[in-house]
Specification:
With 175 residues, the protein is an all-alpha fold. The protein has one domain (2-10, 39-174). The chain has helices at 2-18, 41-55, 57-75, 81-89, 93-107, 110-121, 123-161, 166-174. It is elongated. It starts with a helix and ends with a helix.
Length: 175
């Protein structure tokens, strides 16, 4: 299960990035310019929360976790359905949203945040937000297969090079 946990973690962050929840960064890769003394930090943070709310960041994160759990159910058939239901009910989307606020604050100026809010409130932005759940679902399925294919290649190459002992080989293939 450890190998699957690594794959799921990589996929989670990859899908978050490509689905638009990901964290924006300037072209130079540097942080946002320092906040001017006149800029109200609380107003910027409130606008970041609005941006994250508009894009459905927390809800899409929860949806992704639910998809991941559906995949985990197939590898853990002995776990009762109530366990999964209880786990999903404990997911707090506000927690994910709050975790993203400092990241947006670090890489985007307040004017950038305001511009993104305008975009996401526009008809085009709304269509994009509307399509994100389907994009995320399909990206998850593609990413899951991609990750599994890579894991299979790693195991095959390790076999070819003689790096896998028979005991380790069986444990890797079981995962």
């Amino acid at each position: 299960m450890g190998f699957q946990k690594i794959i799921f973690s990589v996929l989670f962050f990859g899908v978050l990035f490509i689905s638009g929840i990901g964290f924006a960064q300037s072209e130079s890769g540097s942080a946002a310019p320092p906040i001017a003394a006149s800029e109200d930090k609380e107003a910027k943070l409130a606008d970041i929360r609005e941006l994250v709310r508009l894009t459905g960041g927390g809800n899409m994160g929860k949806q992704f976790i639910e998809q991941m759990i559906n995949s985990m159910k197939t590898t853990s058939p002995n776990v009762p359905e109530q366990f999964w239901n209880d786990f999903v009910s404990e997911i707090n989307v506000k927690e994910l949203e709050d975790l993203n606020v400092p990241i947006y604050d670090k890489y985007l100026a307040h004017e950038d945040i305001k511009g993104l809010i305008v975009f996401y409130q526009s008809p085009l932005g709304q269509r994009f937000i509307g399509a994100l759940p389907q994009i995320m679902q399909e990206a998850y399925m593609v990413g899951e297969k991609w990750g599994t294919d890579i894991a299979d290649k790693v195991i095959q190459r390790m076999k070819e090079k003689g790096y896998l002992e028979k005991q380790n080989e069986k444990s890797l293939e079981a995962k």
